[in-house]
Specification:
binds NADP nicotinamide-adenine-dinucleotide phosphate; disordered N terminus; alpha/beta; six-stranded parallel sheet; 12 helices; three-stranded mixed sheet; Rossmann fold; 6-phosphogluconate dehydrogenase C-terminal fold; 346 residues; 45% helix
């Protein structure tokens, strides 16, 4: 593998404030290429532009409509939009593949012969072991392949869904394969840090196990519960909508996530998800038994533990401490409320 210079010193020549904790500095990457201009790719491109992490950003997408939209959005998104991935990667120092996990290998095959020697090839897929395995055979000698996963997102997709601040104070996990030049990993780490993320390094297998419980299983549960509520049909249909201000509403947000992306996540992280699902089913059976037996002590003990976990997440700054996630609650009605039984002097 070609040796890379390490990241440049972090002396910040600040140019402009571009949003919460986003500060433009000298470029770290001369040319960034982003393949897939959806929520994550669009956020990487916008953040690189807003912070100046890359001197120029080239974007491509397989969809002509998406490419047209990126051109319309203009230079806050990309300096150049190309028709094909193969064309986009020419002369790029960092290539970020931001397409569904199942499409990563085909993209790697399409771009392989145009990658610049010494370039870093990375991705943002939510599963790491299968992506690392499927892309690696296409990576030419002299190109540094470092799979990555920013643990940040929303339930929206497409070119208008992304925003420059998406990664601020979120984690990005790098999973370099054996033999990766440390300087290349340092450069990629510096890039993610420059666009606001905290970086952790681990093996792809460990990533997949951790994410199976923290992200993939919660999505599976949300998809299940929203589907189950829907199948209750006519009896509760109106109630499901009417009373969705309870916990159900938060499940519906997660269950609105992109079907293609999540289909690929479950197909590609099958073993880790099945392992976590086995443990989850055992725990669910324990709670079911406690309810059946009227074992309030077991329920109380369990709920006390989970409440402490939630508070720990807030303390770590990974979520808002505001009640109901800080959602706005409408104003009180200002007109006096009619009180049919009130007398004049009470
Ligand atoms: P997205 O908003 O749907 O964007 C993906 C884009 O890639 C779409 O415009 C899609 O085009 C395009 N695309 C698909 N196949 C392609 C190909 N072969 N060549 C070029 N472009 C292609 O999805 P996303 O949420 O950004 O997800 C992208 C990746 O990020 C996935 O691997 C996902 O696992 C990972 N990720 C997602 C989140 C999240 O919360 N959403 C968080 C972290 C990581 P079409 O619309 O024509 O299919």
């Amino acid at each position: 593998m070609t040796s890379l210079p390490g990241p440049p010193p972090q002396g910040r020549r600040e140019r402009a404030e571009c949003g919460a904790n986003i500060v433009a500095t000298d470029p770290l990457i001369s040319r960034l290429c982003v393949i897939g201009a959806g929520l994550i790719g669009g956020s990487v491109a916008r953040a690189a532009k807003a912070t100046g992490a890359a001197a120029s950003v080239v974007v491509t997408d397989r969809s002509a409509d998406v490419r047209k939209r990126v051109r319309e959005i203009g230079s806050s998104f990309a300096d150049k939009v190309t028709e094909t991935s193969a064309e986009a990667v020419k002369d790029a120092d960092l290539v970020v593949v931001a397409v569904p996990v199942g499409a990563c290998a085909a993209v790697a095959r399409d771009i392989a012969s145009n990658l610049k020697p010494g370039a870093i090839l990375s991705d943002v897929g939510s599963v790491k072991a299968s992506v690392a395995r499927d892309m690696a055979p296409f990576v030419p000698e002299g190109v540094h392949f470092i799979p990555a996963h920013p643990v940040a997102g929303t339930e929206n997709s497409g070119p208008d869904a992304g925003f420059a601040e998406l990664f601020v104070n979120r984690w990005c996990i790098l999973t370099p394969v054996q033999g990766t030049a440390p300087a290349a990993t340092e450069t990629l780490q510096a890039f993610w840090e420059k666009i606001g993320a905290n970086v952790a390094v681990m093996t792809p297998e460990h990533h997949d196990l951790v994410l199976a419980i923290t992200s993939h299983l919660p999505h599976l549960i949300a998809y299940t519960i929203v589907g189950t509520a829907n199948e209750l049909g006519d009896v509760t249909e109106s109630e499901v909508l009417k009373f969705s201000a309870g916990g159900f509403r938060d499940f519906t947000r997660i269950a609105a996530s992109d079907p293609t992306m999540w289909r690929d996540v479950f197909l590609h992280n099958k073993d880790a998800v099945l392992e976590m699902l086995g443990t989850f089913n055992e725990d669910l059976s324990k709670l079911t038994r406690a309810i059946r037996r009227g074992d309030g002590e077991a329920l109380f003990e369990h709920f006390t533990r989970t409440r402490a976990i939630r508070r720990g997440i807030v303390t770590l700054g990974q979520d808002s401490a505001a009640p109901d996630f800080g959602r706005a609650h409408g104003p009180l009605p200002i007109a006096p409320i009619a009180r049919p039984y009130a007398s004049d002097d009470d």
